[in-house]
Structure formats: structure tokens, C-alpha cells
Amino acid sequence: MIRVEGVHHSYDDHPVLHGIDLTLTESRVGIIGANGSGKSTLARMLNGLVIPERGRVLVDGLDTRKHGHRIRQRVGFVFPDADTQIIMPTVAEDVAIGLSGRGLSKADVARRTTDILARYGLAAHHDRPAHLLSGGQKQMLALAAVLVTEPEILICDEPTTLLDLRNVTLVVETLKALPQQVILLTHHLDILHDFDRVLVIDEGRLAFDGAPSEAVDHYRALVSAGGTAPGRNTPR
Ligand SMILES: Nc1ncnc2c1ncn2[C@@H]1O[C@H](COP(=O)(O)OP(=O)(O)OP(=O)(O)O)[C@@H](O)[C@H]1O
């Protein structure tokens, strides 16, 4: 369970989050809001990639300020642009690297790598250079490379942003089938219709917290009322 307690954050004296309190227990949680509203900053706090300036974030009682490494073993994070997440030359190596330092034998690493690539439709690409994959395949690889570590919670920061409709569907169906708790940041509002809970972030504050359709209505109303800063995305 993730708890966010009285979290404030600034970058270079520019306030980005203002007093966020949350307890996240639901299986499927969406986070929506305008560009620059603070969603990614909040998401990155949930596994200790960003430490709050004030307040604290607890994962199963562990404070991200003190237990970042242990928390990141429990909470996987998928970034918006798979290219920035793919770090090894071949597809299999990119998955296997996530298993290093876990005391697994080479045979176990190879077996788990082969299994996860098969599960996510990448078996035929095992030894291919990762940079030659299509955009959708790269996003699936980024997802597989996180899921092979068997996190208890998965945070996905706009994992469908760069994908065409077919690949959006593939990634979304994959996420929805996972047994893990999934926390998904997205500008594709329709993805969230069957989520358990959706948070609307507006200029660093929690503007709405509830059912998906009401959250989307709230976000659209905010945009219509000019409640988000100018020049930001219109919700789809
Ligand atoms: N590392 C950083 N250093 C300085 N400023 C940052 C940093 N990361 C984010 N910001 C700023 O903090 C604000 C919130 O950014 P954040 O990425 O959290 O918003 P977001 O809601 O995820 O936006 P988007 O939908 O565009 O991804 C923005 O003004 C952004 O420019």
C-alpha cells in the first residue's frame, strides 16, 4: 500500500506540488491532468525517484527517503519514452539486466528472460538489437524489462504517448490483465473507463479523486473553465 502524506515539492523554488495526501489501495488507479500539472513528479515520488521537499511517501510502511532501493524492488516504473528506458544492446540483455544483483543463476536469468519475452510477444526478437524494434515493440520491451523483476506495484507514466492505436490497445490490454496494482498516468482518458479510481491533478493540487467518468468530467470542466494553465493539452 502506498501512502502520500502532506507532500509538497518545488524545483528551483518553483512550487510543483502543494500538500498532497493519498492512500492508494485500489488495483487500478489513473492519474490525469494538464501538462505540467505535477503528475510525473507525484508518480516519481511513489517509488522514491523524487524525494518530497516536505511530507513523506510510504510504501508498505517503508519511507522513500530511507528505503529507496528496497522500494524500487517492489514498485516498478515504466517511463513515457521507451528509448530512454532501453539501455542494453539486445532485447534479451535489456530484460536480463533487471535481474542482475538478485542472486539468480545464469540459467534462471535466461529462463525468466525467455519466458517474459514469450509472454509479451517478443520471443522472435530475443537476440535482435533493441533499437531496431518498432515503437510498440519497444514499449512492450520496456514493460517486460520491468515486469521480469516481479514488482508488486507498477507505475506507468504515459506509456502509450508515442504509440499508434493498435499498439495503444496492446499496451492497455496488457496492463489491464496484470495481477499487480497499476497506477497509470495518461492523456488517453478513454483508457480509464473501467479503472477503480482516478485522480485529477491541477496545478499541483488534487482537484478530484473518485470514479473515472466523474474524474474525466471534472477535468474537462476545469479545462473549459480555464482552470489549467494556458497552452496545455486538451483532454482527448
Ligand atoms: N527535474 C526537474 N527540474 C526542474 N523542473 C522540473 C523537473 N521536472 C519537472 N519540472 C517542472 O515541474 C512542473 C511539473 O512537471 P511534471 O512533469 O511533474 O508535470 P506533468 O503533469 O507530468 O506534465 P506532462 O503531462 O507534460 O508530463 C513543470 O513545470 C516542469 O517543467
TrEMBL record:
**Entry keywords, A to Z:** ATP-binding, Nucleotide-binding, Transport
PROSITE patterns per record = ABC_TRANSPORTER_1, ABC_TRANSPORTER_2
Q: Which residues form a coiled coil?
A: none
Q: Which SUPFAM superfamilies match?
A: P-loop containing nucleoside triphosphate hydrolases (SSF52540)
SMART domains linked: AAA (SM00382)
Write out the GO cellular component annotations.
ATP-binding cassette (ABC) transporter complex
Q: Which InterPro entries match?
A: AAA+_ATPase, ABC_transporter-like_ATP-bd, ABC_transporter-like_CS, ABC_transpr_CbiO/EcfA_su, ECF_ABC_transporter_ATP-bd, P-loop_NTPase
Q: What is this protein called?
A: Biotin transport system ATP-binding protein
Which GO MF terms are attached to this record? Answer: ATP binding; ATP hydrolysis activity; ATPase-coupled transmembrane transporter activity
UniProt lists the family membership as follows:
Belongs to the ABC transporter superfamily.
Q: Which residues form the ABC transporter domain?
A: 2-228
